Amino acid sequence: MKILAIETSCDETAIAIIEAEGDEQHARFKVLGNALLSQIELHRQYGGVFPALAKREHAKNLVPILASALEEAELLREDTQSIPQDLHDRITALLEREPELSEQLMEFLAETERPEIDAIAVTAGPGLEPALWVGINLAKALSIAWNIPVVSVNHMEGHILSALAAREADEEDVLLIKGIPMPVLALLISGGHTELVLMKEWLSYELIGQTKDDAVGEAFDKVARMMGLPYPGGPEISKLAESARHEPDDFTEGIDLPRPMINDNTCDFSFSGLKTAVLYILKKYPDISLEDQKRISLAFEDAVSDVLYAKTAKAIEATGAQTFVIGGGVSANTHIRRTFIDKFDEEQGGVLLKLPTPDLTTDNAVMIGLAGFYRASRKEFADIDSLRADGNRHLT
After folding, report:
1. 10 and 82 housed in the same domain
2. Buried b / exposed e along 353-385 (16+ C-beta atoms within 10 A)
């Protein structure tokens, strides 16, 4: 099965072509084409993602990225096509709010043949709804033009499944999902999410714990902004903290940060108090030095890692999980990954730890293709007339 996957949930415009085979117990994915354009530099001036700008950039870049992914997959066939007037009118009406995308797409369709694609997978949520709509409307338009079914994908399911995938030896473009002991516990950490989700059986989810206030990625960004660091703040804090890890143990003396809710009986999280504690410390440093930035970054990252692991350990004990994965953008954090690897070796014998490869930690279309395959295999195709963006979509 060949899947064309579209991801526009936030500030990454991405399209991938995946060739998939197998079943839920043993699936093999070959990445035939993968094109991604990040908008980080455009949003940096705003100190965060500006939804209207993200929507505009997706609309401007999706068709060139589509062409690039199809060309890499050797599925792009140039040939002049006559587009029936009723088809032209239907697609134009669908894309009336994205005139630039409409114009580019109609030109593309008129110059290329229908590719050998079996299904289109598109992120329908969660995420920024204006951004999600652009990808969804492209998927709908391609479905109409090429008569290909659409799969509605939950973005967080993509993170879970991509974390379960491993590279096949000596084949960088091949991913395998096999031999996964159930149940699977997932820690999903990003700018908008901090939650523990249990998958007792394939594609069936139960929420075990979640943040009561800030998501962990949001807390990283807010603390970075307090210290005058550029957006995105998480990687900046991580760099400073890593540079300080060779310092003596007393390097962070005097910077005592709390571990909110670490000892309570739930699997829920809270990072608002930790962020506030950093704010009070920063009041002591009106002209903060690089050395002080390092000290605070190190203490903050340690506190976050301690909380994430403690809550995960509690959830593993409560659920009897046999496999544990981390997904989402914050899963790229070096110290968080190191903490879980070291702790699992010491304390979680028998539980399989799966971490996503670095290129699959941030938003990407490959993970949407993986999820799309599993849903398409179950014939869970969307009615394109009722397919909608859902910025708060939950795993079920």
Report:
1. yes
2. ebbbeeebbbbbbbbbbbbbbbbbbeeebbebe
